[in-house]
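Androgen-induced gene 1 protein isoform X7 structure dump, as promised
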Amino acid sequence: MALVPCQVLRVAILLSYCSILCNYKAIEMPSHQTYGGSWKFLTFIDLFVVAVFWIIYAYDREMIYPKLLDNFIPGWLNHGMHTTVLPFILIEMRTSHHAYPSRSSGLAAICTFSVGYILWVCWVHHVTGMWVYPFLEHIGPGARIVFFGSTTILMNFLYLLGEVLNSYIWDTQRSMEEEKEKPKLE
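structure tokens r here:
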């Protein structure tokens, strides 16, 4: 039995990853009529992941993605998790209209998600003695609180940015379609 070439395996993994991200269903696609589908809050939170990961990586790689991980997670998979997300965010923003909930509900959901994730990160440290993200080990408790607060504020900002961009893109498109439908008076 011949081994599957590495490139074919990489493409298969990437396509599997993309299909999970897109929540693709072959028969029905009702997510376009809902509040943005299963991933409605993740669009610009994903942008947060891309930005924060690469900023910390550029500052000091060992703080976020130690070279030791290269032995277990190949570079292409790292890019699959932290880089290729960006084009899909932009494509989704252009191709899928998101009907956002009320601003207070959306921001409450983002804050709840953020606090829940922060608590999970702290719980893992409490149980194992290791931080999920190595850079948290290098900063003091006060700096961690500032970091966690700043990330929550940044996530709220990105949520609002997504809401504004979605409104701009889709309201502009809707107005252009209405202009085409208007009868011309001569």
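The first helix runs from residue 6 to 22.
lmk if u need the other ones
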